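All the exercises in this workshop are built on plain-text protein records. Instead of coordinates, the fold is spelled out as a row of discrete tokens. Once this layout is familiar, the rest of the handout is easier to follow. The record below serves as our worked example for the rest of this section.
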Amino acid sequence: MFCYRNLRWYKGINYMKQYPRSEKYDKKWVSENWMGPNPLWLLEELCEHIDLKPGMKVLDMGCGKGITSVFLAKEFGVTVFANDLWISATDNLERFKKAGVADLVYPIHAEAHALPYAQGFFDAAISIDSYTYYGADEAYFPCTFSKLVKPGGQFGIVVPGLKKEFDKGYPDTLKELWEAEMFSFHSKNWWRHLWEKTGIVEIKACYDIEEPKKIWRPWAVWAKENLGFKDVEFLNADTFDDLSLIVMSATKKTA
């Protein structure tokens, strides 16, 4: 059961100046529906580097329980296709109805390599904290993701990663807590090269978010108390601050 004591991490941390749009949303609603570090903070950070306008069609890839889709619809008036594999489209539809955005947000249940969209259908495709699960495959961006967006359209992702590449794939401080899926954690330069080398896009922004643990830790505390996850131990073990949250946006070339 959700307990307000899990919101204690908001006290003494002023995110209002940095993420003023996100502050309008009920914190209890966010923590009941998040599946990783606060997705609204991450999305608001990304949206500083994407030009969204009412009427645009946006793919929210790996949307989880859809709170990022709600944010996009309410804040920018865009039409959102909320795509996720793990969460039921029916359950997400109910959340969208309750949020008052069912006329703008369409829930889709589909795997990242079997998407039911026409090529060039979207004005923008974004992914918050899920792209590492499928997009670290070198063929995914040129063969799948890039084809969904029209020429001149936009891409944006926020992913967990590392400040630099390591020969072993991880820093020694995290060896005991490193899991197989974390080998998709890479540096901003690695991600930039992954997209840039295709010649399909022009990178507009690619950087490490400052003080990523301030964004990561609230989720880690909640996940430890409610799900028994070891995210707190993981963050604490990162004594050399090698962990990162990476923002990258790009525009699809027209020729």
